[in-house]
Amino acid sequence: MRRNTLFFILIALLFGAGGAATISCVRASASENIRYGFPDIFDISYTPDTLHRCTGWFTDAGAWFGFTSPERAAWTDGFCGPFSLDMNRRQWMAKSAVTVTPADGGKGSPDSVCYYPGELHIGSAFGNGRIGQRLNFIDASSALLSVENTTGKGLSYTGLEWAPEISLEQVGNTVLASHPSGEIVALTFAPETEIKVDAGNYVARTPVRDSDHVVISFFADREDYDASAERIDSILSDPASALAENGRRWEDYLRKTLRDDMPDEYDRIAVKAITTLVSNHRVARGGLLHDGIIPSHAVGYFVGLWAWDSWRFSAGAAAFDPELAKNNIRAMFDYQQPDGMVIDCIYTDPAENNARDSKPPLVCWAVDKIWEATADREFLAEMYPQLLAYYKWWYAKRDHDANGICEYGSVDGTLEAAAWESGMDNAIRFDDVTMLPNNEEKDAWSMDQESVDLNAYLANECRYLKKFAAILGERFDAPDQTDRIADYFFDPERKFFFDRHLGDRRSVGDPGCEAYTMLWTGLAKPEQVEAMMPVLQDTTKFSTYIPFPTIAADNPKYNPRGYWRGPIWLDQTYFAISGLRNYGHDDLADAYTRQVFDRLDGLKEGAPIHENYGTHTGERLKAPHFSWSASHLIMLYQEYGGGGKVKALIL
Question: Which of 632, 647, 608 is nearest to 272 (CA)?
């Protein structure tokens, strides 16, 4: 990031550490407060109604609730929400739990809206002045509302359109809004505030003051609220310290990630990616026994933890929040099976967990990212036996003919679960697969083809396990097929890497993204990579507008919206680009990175980062605010131009 760039001058002063000031959403000096160099990081303006649904919230610190800023055409004089982000009870608790106007009444008109990383602002203009509001999450339970008032009047707070099931009561200087589910919104005002609860709503009035604070808290039940009352009071009694801690946390995230030598617009992409991961952080709750990062808070079915998603998220977060990265891995291993299997996905309700399949093994790579960031030997020692057991599980339960080369499979024998285990649910290479039982108990099944990406991942994991064993003084006693993989899966006639059929060992399918893993892991031989280059650089196949689709773009089965049958997935694009660096093609890798950064729709503007993108258009496709894509954008950013470049681990 260029520290000497001349930024736009603020029209008015930024909020201070303990008070508030008028905000216009323009770029400010990043010398002391980096986040103020990145205004409008996302556009999440949305006023709840029945006509359309929201696709993203402001949330932070692992919270299970979030807010939006109001739409200018449907202004509310308050942040919208909170919204319960739990998968099982996703609901608006109110259109706006806290609206703020002058004590003598009146509705404001939109003045400003801005989303900085970790900080949301709105402003309302009134005939006699302005009320500005700033929202910061202090912890997973509480957000602090800071109010600045230039109207010369006292302040009047009230809720707007509470959910029908909500009941309100006053407890001291707190208004409790309770839902039959058990969830509670607690609004805690300064002690001298006059509060009345009546007819399903509340009014809280203050004397004339220039600034004020309200703590907005959210709890799963009354017991959680009772346990947190003292913490809420401490926030309200010293808001400056609470806001300063929020500021330090975000400064730390950004300083650990941003580079001094990158264009401003690429810095913005990295900051969006960090904000996406932090927004998808959830603290331990119910069946999730450790903090973790969900795929997307904006999509209800993605409010859980998936195995290879979690490995990717931890790799992306390792440098700026290593403790979250560690816990994200621990959360999945909390459900490791006695035979070593790590199951597909877990939820707050364990009854929803999916143990029919696993996911591709990338966890040792993620653990190594954490090791490189922290040198935490204790964490390495904690994880090593579990990592080794998981690695051995693949050879015990997913090697049908015991030849040391594994297949994707499932516990229940279904192809559906086996395709899920690959992570590439509907990939064309699985169109003609047959399932085979691997034992008499028939609790382990394999596809009838050996997958190149799976075995490349396993060989890569083997390298990391050997590294960890050497650091810890442990013994590595597991299969090592590293030296076999390159020649086994390379087709010298078609000059590409393919899966192989178990029966006649023929190459299976058409050129696809599974081959990129051989470059990313550094397992491919240099002459094999050079033989692949004409296909990889063919603009009708893989060197497309956004590079490296999931299958060659000229394949008859290519579908521009076909999930794993055509669109761009940024993890696969990252594997290809990072893989090219392993073989000396740095300039080409940089050129492809620029295509990604410059051409993905909305990436440099306020649009959320999406699950996948159009190959020929860069259009946004599936789930917004997607952690998987964010993680790989961070890694593309880190490696661009040779900065922080890490060659494939070769032992």
Answer: 608
Three-state SS for 482? helix
Helix (H), strand (E) at residue 527: helix 526-536
Q: With H, G, I as helix, E, B as strand and everything else as coil, classify residue 360.
A: coil
* 23 confidence band (pLDDT: 50, 70, 90): very low
Q: Is the peptide bond before 82 cis (omega within 30 degrees of 0)?
A: yes
Q: Where are the alpha helices (DSSP H) in 204-321?
A: 222-237, 239-257, 264-279, 307-317
Residue with tokens 């006292």: 154
Helix (H) or strand (E) holding 200: none
Return the SS3 of 599.
helix
Q: How far apart are CA 213 and CA 133, in angstroms?
A: 10
Q: Indicate the pTM of the whole model.
A: 0.94
Residue 540 has pLDDT above 70, yes or no: yes
Which tokens in the block code for residue 321?
Answer: 């929040």
Angle, helices 452-472 vs 363-374, to 10°: value is: 40
Pick the closest to residue 108 from 135, 81, 76, 145 (CA basis).
76
Question: Identity (one letter) of the amino acid at 51?
Answer: L
CA pair distance 393, 533, nearest whole angstrom: 35
271 Cβ neighbours under 8 A, 6+ residues apart = 35, 38, 41, 117, 254, 257, 258
Segment (H or E) for 8: none
Confidence of residue 50 (pLDDT cuts 50, 70, 90): low
Tokens coding 265: 């617009």
CB neighbour list of residue 320: distance below 8 Å, 6 or more residues apart: 252, 253, 254, 256, 257, 274
Q: What CA–CA distance (Å, rounded) separates 385 from 374?
A: 20
> For tokens 């940089």, what's the residue?
590
